[in-house]
């Protein structure tokens, strides 16, 4: 005998706690949670100090459905969707089957005895719901136990909003991103309702890179998937192209993104494509997991006319068509074939500078020191950002030019010309008082929480960026909003209304980025971002009674 062959399973954990993750020809493989033929199985990691002690303390468990249970699952249960999509078990890809098997592989037998059935978790870290009556027989092996079950414990992936991306090869870039960014547990949770917008591989050729907003040339990321790569980290890559946002013309390729950049951008995409809640409940604006707002139109038309728009699409007046819809157990999945939801490059200042109706407020803001292009000397901004924004969503209320001019003429609000005159007269006390009054006035018009007309109705008190030193807290505004308007009540009891006669002056969406470098031209990743909505209101707000 000149050879001895050993049977091994491709798995995350096998002999000595090490993975078996490549085929003999170094090709890619799917993996089980652990090797069921690893005779010295232990539940710890490879770095465990004593494997023998770990072996004596615990072992693995596999819950194995009977043939009858599998047949019923395939024909009538949650597996029916696999039958409809693939036709036979032989055509189901290994990674899909592995998800089912891994959901029934439990790392700890000690934690899975009948008295602890309630603590057995599924792939979404929710209770699996195992009962004594589900187990027909138990066998003990040298490395663990086998429960013969009369039902199939299906992974939540098969019934969640993640499922369309999980099984469809035209969406495998998003599937890869979901698992790399660890959003699978989030999307598989059956305790919440989600609206998951899934750009397919084709649409991810059209992602405008927000990290390029601060550069001299806007860039386009084109994501690609190569399933032949043995290293899972290499299966998704992105080429970078110069891009003219005015003409839509794609220029020269300037290279490829690093793995870190790919994951960074896919996380940005995911955060702007997930809504906690139902986007068909009758409203127009919905907040994503990343804090940005999206606009959803023509819901009744379904896949024959429904559109979704991020702030990029809203400001460009172009919605993205929804091409398919899947009803899942924890919400709906919406497939996008043309382009992903994207966030605008326009900052609040960009929006204020676009319309003369905002000009007086902008004039005050420009002299206030509330704008910045580098945050804390470390993080370059994508444009001229508001310095008090801090990884959240905000509302900026802009009083009409007329109301501000009347306030200034009455002597109740100084101007920056007044501050300059104070300095020229060497009246430094008045200079400080006047400049502080202007800045506090402006900060009182910047409110935490982005409130939209057409979003879910809101009523409550919201903090502003203006600080009250007497109470060691921020001054607040009371806001009421619904599908038709917004009313803002200040500390004096003045009621101001968002003006809606001109659709270009309310619900204006802004996005402000900070990058991982003090030089925007050298930035490679998004450090953080904030979003905002700008409304024109019919009068100024006062924080002092």
UniProtKB/TrEMBL annotation:
SUPFAM superfamilies: FAS1 domain. Coiled coil: none annotated. Gene3D superfamilies: FAS1 domain. PROSITE patterns: FAS1 (PS50213). Residues 345-541 form the FAS1 domain. Transmembrane segments: none annotated. InterPro entries: Adhesion/Biosynth-related, FAS1_dom_sf, FAS1_domain. This is FAS1 domain-containing protein.
């Amino acid at each position: 005998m000149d050879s001895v062959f050993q049977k091994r399973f491709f798995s995350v954990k096998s002999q000595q706690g090490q993975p078996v993750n490549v085929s003999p020809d170094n090709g890619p493989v799917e993996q089980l949670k652990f090797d069921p033929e690893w005779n010295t199985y232990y539940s710890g990691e490879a770095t465990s100090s004593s494997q023998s002690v770990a072996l004596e303390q615990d072992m693995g468990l596999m819950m194995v459905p009977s043939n009858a249970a599998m047949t019923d699952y395939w024909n009538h249960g949650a597996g029916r969707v696999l039958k409809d999509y693939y036709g036979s078990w032989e055509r189901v890809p290994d990674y899909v089957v592995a998800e089912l098997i891994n959901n029934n592989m439990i790392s700890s037998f000690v934690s899975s005895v009948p008295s602890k059935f309630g603590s057995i978790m599924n792939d979404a870290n929710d209770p699996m719901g195992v009962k004594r009556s589900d187990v027909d027989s138990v066998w003990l092996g040298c490395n663990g136990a086998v429960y013969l079950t009369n039902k199939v414990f299906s992974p939540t992936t098969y019934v969640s909003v993640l499922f369309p991306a999980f099984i469809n090869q035209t969406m495998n870039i998003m599937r890869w991103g979901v698992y790399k960014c660890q959003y699978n547990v989030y999307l598989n949770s059956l305790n919440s309702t989600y609206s998951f917008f899934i750009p397919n591989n084709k649409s991810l050729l059209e992602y405008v890179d927000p990290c390029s907003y601060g550069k001299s040339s806007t860039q386009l990321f084109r994501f690609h998937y190569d399933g032949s790569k043995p290293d899972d980290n290499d299966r998704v890559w992105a080429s970078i192209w110069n891009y003219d946002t005015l003409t839509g013309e794609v220029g020269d390729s300037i290279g490829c993104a690093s793995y870190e950049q790919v994951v960074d951008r896919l996380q940005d995409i995911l955060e702007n494509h997930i809504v906690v809640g139902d986007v068909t409940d009758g409203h127009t604006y919905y907040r994503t997991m990343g804090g940005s707002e999206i606009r959803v139109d023509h819901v009744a038309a379904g896949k024959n006319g429904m559109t979704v728009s991020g702030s990029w699409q809203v400001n460009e007046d172009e919605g993205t068509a929804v091409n398919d819809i899947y009803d899942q157990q924890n919400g709906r999945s919406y497939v996008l074939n043309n382009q992903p939801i994207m966030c605008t490059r326009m900052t609040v200042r960009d929006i204020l500078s676009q319309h003369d109706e905002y000009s007086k407020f902008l004039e005050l803001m420009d002299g206030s020191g509330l704008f910045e292009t580098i945050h804390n000397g470390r993080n370059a901004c994508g444009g001229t950002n508001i310095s008090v924004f801090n990884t959240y969503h905000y509302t900026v209320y802009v009083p009409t030019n007329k109301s501000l001019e009347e306030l200034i003429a009455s002597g109740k609000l100084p101007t920056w010309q007044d501050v300059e005159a104070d300095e020229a007269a060497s009246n430094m006390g008045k200079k400080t008082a006047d400049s502080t009054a202007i800045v506090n006035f402006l900060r009182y018009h910047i409110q935490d929480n982005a409130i939209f007309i057409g979003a879910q109705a809101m009523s409550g008190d919201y903090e502003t960026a203006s600080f009250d030193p007497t109470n060691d807290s921020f001054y607040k505004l009371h806001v009421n909003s619904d599908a038709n308007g917004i009313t803002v009540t200040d500390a004096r009891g003045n009621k101001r209304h968002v003006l809606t006669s001109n659709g270009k002056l309310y619900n204006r969406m802004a996005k402000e980025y900070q990058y991982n470098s003090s030089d925007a031209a050298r930035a490679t990743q998004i450090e953080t971002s904030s979003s905002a909505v700008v409304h024109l209101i019919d009068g100024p707000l006062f924080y002092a009674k």
